[in-house]
Amino acid sequence: MVATKKILLANLFLIVFFLIYLCVLDAIFIFLLNEQSGFVNDLGMLIVIMPFIGVIITWRLAFSEFSSIGCFAICSFSFVALMVIGFIEYLWVATHFHTLLGGNI
Asked: Which of 21, 34, 65, 81 has the fewest beta carbons closer than 10 A?
């Protein structure tokens, strides 16, 4: 049970970190770059990276507590959940947060 709580807490910190990072990148794009710059915006890459980092963290925390089949099941669920949460974060930052700061869509 302790491993499950550690896994959930680690993934929660990962989700919050990526949400804050997305918001900071969007704020920089709006205020410092005036939505004019053609820099490589890595907002889209974060959707792809976050689930893989979450699976690595989940595997490391679950490997000693669960069997390999249980570990695979937990990692699979973690990957799908983080993919969905990352997509929702991306949509929220790209629409609501962006317009909240005064950006144009």
From this structure: 34
